[in-house]
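Project outcomes to date are best conveyed with an example. Our students and postdoctoral researchers have been running inverse folding experiments weekly, and each run begins with a structure described purely in tokens. The record below, which covers 546 residues, was selected by the lab manager from last quarter's runs and is presented without edits.
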């Protein structure tokens, strides 16, 4: 009996050939240099920062070459899957404005995009390998495999199903048929032609040339439940979906010899490989992979709750992706990361270290460059979910809130007060009467209650004028001089003994009296927005308290 007869015996219902599937999924008609990439998670939960970064990489390279980015779901481990897992992943990626050209929900010409829906495809490709003598059925039980491992361990030999340990490799057709007639469970294994004592050499786009032993293990390509493991499925899927660049965790590097053997057994054109080191975090003196179980900052919800803009997170990812991005961005802050040309050779060969402080700094810079309308809209979206009271307040005072957010924004070097939208309320609470009820005032050099009242009363009686900034500041200087303070900082520095203090001290009294804070944005703009009546009311209330 021939290998083809064995293939027909094992897969009697498989009628399509791999040639049929080559026609169903033809080569994509794309220009040279175009990248077709994919992100292939399991539907086991929401996207976390580690796989958000892992998906950012293939999406970026596909987009900058006018290519194709695919979301493919690897759900062959049914025990770990959760309800609506696919929808959750897709929602998370789209929420970050990742452009996904083909996916399980929206479809595409190269689907299905869920592995368990591609079983008949895998069967056809497994049948082909059996028909050319490159795969065979294995009826070894769990007990057989356990005994094999024990023997290998006792003899200090490599663990695995290979060579003399591959007991089912040379079963005859009749022996196979007898097992099948008996209803014995089986798997399909690759008949490896590798030699562990020889090397394969391949080029990784990030790590460069890598040399590893050839694969000589007869790995399982179809499990006893009829579902293929990841390795076999991903080779078939990447080929039929015409993926040109495989970006994946570097934990798969050791499996490359086996994957290469599969590609060669089918005589497929191999994709280019880029093995990413996972997103890492510093834990005391050690560095480890970021963990959604151990690290709160691994959860995407952590950033949603804090109100860190999604675009800021992607800008941070861009700094991790290419070492030269940060310098480029400093010189092109009016542009998007999409305007930068990323390259694989500028990717780090060591694991990117996640730095929350750096992310917050990038976020602070990003928010500072937005318009007041953009900040307001984002703040509205965030507060609607996470701070309903503040949401209602800024809805009520829409234009007023925009003007608050615009203080020191439209200038060459805008203020960088907010690293997240959750920061804003605590920093501008004094602009809303509904929130302003201070129990502490951050007085500066002047703490004498009588002197504070004198400054405030004289200012309101004689010097209050916010018609323009020059007049406003000049009046504060005049107020200072009338009360024995230096109206000019230079005069005070030269002869401090001649004055009670300086104009800065008087300004601080005004600032603290109105806001309770010693550090705020531009005091003139704050006073102009609050208006005289509200300022007087606050000063009168303060007089009763001090």
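After processing, the design step wrote out the following sequence:
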């Amino acid at each position: 009996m021939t290998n083809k007869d064995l293939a027909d015996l094992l897969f009697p219902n498989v009628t399509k050939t791999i040639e049929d599937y080559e026609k169903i999924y033809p080569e994509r008609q794309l220009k040279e240099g175009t990248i077709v990439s994919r992100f292939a998670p399991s539907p086991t939960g929401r996207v976390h920062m580690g796989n958000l970064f892992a998906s950012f990489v293939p999406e970026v390279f596909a987009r900058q070459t006018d290519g194709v980015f695919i979301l493919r779901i690897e759900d062959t481990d049914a025990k770990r899957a959760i309800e609506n897992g696919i929808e959750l992943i897709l929602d998370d990626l789209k929420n970050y404005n990742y452009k996904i050209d083909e996916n399980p929900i929206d479809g595409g010409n190269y689907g299905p995009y869920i592995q368990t829906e591609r079983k008949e495809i895998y069967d056809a490709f497994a049948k082909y390998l059996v028909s050319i003598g490159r795969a065979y059925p294995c009826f070894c039980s769990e007990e057989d495999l356990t005994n094999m491992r024990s023997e290998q361990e006792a003899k200090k030999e490599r663990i695995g199903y290979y060579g003399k340990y591959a007991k089912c490799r040379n079963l005859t057709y009749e022996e196979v048929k007898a097992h099948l007639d008996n209803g014995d469970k089986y798997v399909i294994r690759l008949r490896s032609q590798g030699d562990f004592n020889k090397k394969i050499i391949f080029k990784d786009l990030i790590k460069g040339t890598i040399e590893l032993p050839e694969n000589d293990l007869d790995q399982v390509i179809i499990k006893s439940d009829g579902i293929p493991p990841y390795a076999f499925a991903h080779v078939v899927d990447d080929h039929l979906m015409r993926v040109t660049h495989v970006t994946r965790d570097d934990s798969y590097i050791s499996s490359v010899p086996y994957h290469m053997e599969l590609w060669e057994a089918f005589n497929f054109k191999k994709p280019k490989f880029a093995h990413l080191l996972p997103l890492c975090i510093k834990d005391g003196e050690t560095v480890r992979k970021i963990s959604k179980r151990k690290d709160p900052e691994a959860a995407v919800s952590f950033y949603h709750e804090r109100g860190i803009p999604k675009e800021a997170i992607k800008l941070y990812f861009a700094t991790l992706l290419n070492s030269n991005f940060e310098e480029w961005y400093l010189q092109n802050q009016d542009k998007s990361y999409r305007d930068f040309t990323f390259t694989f050779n500028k990717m780090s060969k060591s694991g990117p270290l996640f730095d929350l402080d750096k992310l917050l700094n990038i976020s602070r810079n990003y928010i500072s460059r937005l318009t007041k309308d953009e900040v307001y809209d984002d703040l509205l979206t965030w507060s609607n979910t996470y701070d309903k009271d503040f949401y209602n307040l800024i809805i009520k005072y829409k234009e007023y809130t925009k003007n608050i957010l615009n203080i020191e924004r439209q200038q060459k070097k805008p203020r960088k007060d907010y690293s997240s939208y959750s920061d804003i309320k605590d920093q501008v609470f004094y602009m809303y009467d509904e929130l302003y009820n201070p129990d502490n005032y951050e007085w500066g050099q002047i703490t004498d209650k009588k002197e504070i009242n004198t400054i405030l009363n004289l200012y309101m009686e004689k010097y209050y004028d916010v018609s323009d900034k020059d007049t406003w500041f000049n009046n504060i200087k005049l107020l200072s001089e009338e009360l024995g303070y230096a109206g000019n900082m230079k005069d005070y520095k030269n002869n401090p003994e001649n004055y009670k203090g300086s104009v800065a001290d008087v300004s601080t009294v005004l600032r603290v009296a109105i806001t309770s804070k010693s550090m705020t944005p531009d005091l003139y703009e704050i006073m102009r927005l609050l208006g005289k009546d509200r300022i007087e009311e606050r000063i009168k209330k303060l007089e009763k308290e001090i």
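The chain has a mean pLDDT of 94. The chain has 23 helices and eleven strands. The training component of this project remains on track.
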